[in-house]
From TrEMBL:
It is found in: Cell membrane; Membrane. It holds the Pfam family 60KD_IMP. Residues 35-254 form the Membrane insertase YidC/Oxa/ALB C-terminal domain. Residues 264-343 are annotated as: Disordered. Belongs to the OXA1/ALB3/YidC family. Type 1 subfamily. CDD domains: 5TM_YidC_Alb3. GO terms for molecular function: membrane insertase activity. This is Membrane protein insertase YidC. Interacts with the Sec translocase complex via SecD. Specifically interacts with transmembrane segments of nascent integral membrane proteins during membrane integration. It comes from Saccharopolyspora terrae. It is a multi-pass membrane protein. It comes from the Bacteria. GO terms for biological process: protein insertion into membrane; protein transport. Residues 264-273 have a biased composition (Basic and acidic residues).
Length: 343
């Protein structure tokens, strides 16, 4: 793993080192809260970098929600032709300028960071001469740091012998670890709940999407509690800071996007008001070019209708097929003269 994530292991450890230097200067290099704040600000530094992709993700989600009914129509129309349905959906997304994979970018970028932090923390162990950016003094400082007796690099389910090697015990680990797990779980629940709440009825029209969103709203907090027993205290601090940041960021970005949409709506209303309307009793003003074009088309259509059709082969102009003469209509004057001649 070290060779695979080496391109990100060193930057992550460098950010952690920098913030520890900042808070260690104030609180002391071996202070557990200095290390905890360093982990918090490691999260905040990374999340600030990801604010722009997160904003793009939310904007893309709003756009997707707008034409969700069109997507559902495509699914119903091409339910038996998946290739055609995929082509039409891709065409629709390109027309609206939406990249469905763009919404996954913030979450995908956090995965290697989380794994890298986990690996860096696991490498803080007694006897280590260095740990990426940290020298031996930095390693010893982290090992000696604790929060209410719980060591940052240890986890609750670790064997008692290993905990004793670091100078702690399971009770101290549980006193600190369990509250962190519960707070992280609650923050995860409210984050997922806010995400589901902001989805429109159109985007939730698909029963599978609605069911999956509600399922994740409850399963993610449970996952935070279960996995917390096997994660170092420093990783739980990372998880807590990340979830709290996400909750606050969603509130901030949601208000920002709502304000943007409200401004766009007001612009549309003002544009409609600016359009001149005819006064009572006055005919609407029409475009002269449009009227000329319409009159020309009407004249052409009239001339086409008035033009007599060409006679079929063997048919006289104005006659019936077969060359037969049309029978003269019976007129009253001619009928009377014929009757006199017969008499």
């Amino acid at each position: 793993m070290e060779s695979f994530f080496s391109f990100i292991l060193y930057p992550v450890s460098a950010i952690l080192w920098f913030w520890h230097k900042v808070f260690g200067t104030v609180l002391g290099p071996d202070n557990g809260f200095a290390w905890a704040l360093a982990v918090f600000f490691l999260v905040f530094t990374l999340r600030v970098v990801l604010i722009k992709p997160a904003l793009s993700q939310m904007r893309a989600g709003r756009k997707m929600a707008k034409f969700a009914p069109h997507i559902q129509k495509l699914r119903d129309k091409y339910k038996n032709d998946r290739q055609r349905m995929a082509q039409e959906m891709q065409k629709l997304q390109s027309e609206h300028g939406v990249n469905p994979l763009g919404g996954c970018l913030p979450a995908l970028l956090q995965i290697p960071v989380f794994l890298s932090l986990f690996h860096v923390l696991r490498n803080f162990h007694p006897g280590a001469q260095s740990n990426f950016i940290f020298d031996k003094a930095g390693v010893d400082s982290f090992i000696q740091a604790d929060i209410f007796g719980a060591k940052l690099s240890n986890w609750i389910t670790q064997p008692a012998t290993d905990l004793a090697l670091f100078g702690t015990d399971r009770t101290s680990m549980m006193i600190v670890g369990i509250p962190l797990m519960l707070i992280a779980s609650v923050a995860t629940y409210f984050t997922m709940r806010l995400s589901v709440k902001k989805q429109t009825d159109a985007s939730m029209a698909n029963p599978q999407s609605a069911m999956m969103a509600k399922f994740m709203m409850y399963i993610a907090p449970i996952g935070a509690i279960v996995s917390g027993w096997f994660l170092p205290i420093a990783v739980l601090l990372y998880w807590l800071a990340n979830n709290v940041w996400t909750l606050g960021q969603q509130h901030f970005l949601t208000k920002k996007i709502d304000a943007e949409q409200e401004r766009e709506r007001q612009k549309e209303i003002e544009a409609k008001k600016a359009t001149p309307r005819p006064k009572p009793g006055q005919k609407p003003v029409r475009d002269a070019k449009a009227e000329t074009s319409a009159e020309g088309e009407a004249a052409t259509a009239t001339a086409t209708e008035a033009k007599p059709a060409k006679p079929a082969p063997g048919q006289r102009p104005g006659g019936k097929p077969g060359g037969k003469k049309s029978q003269p209509k019976n007129r009253p004057g001619k009928q009377a003269s014929r009757a006199k001649k017969r008499r």
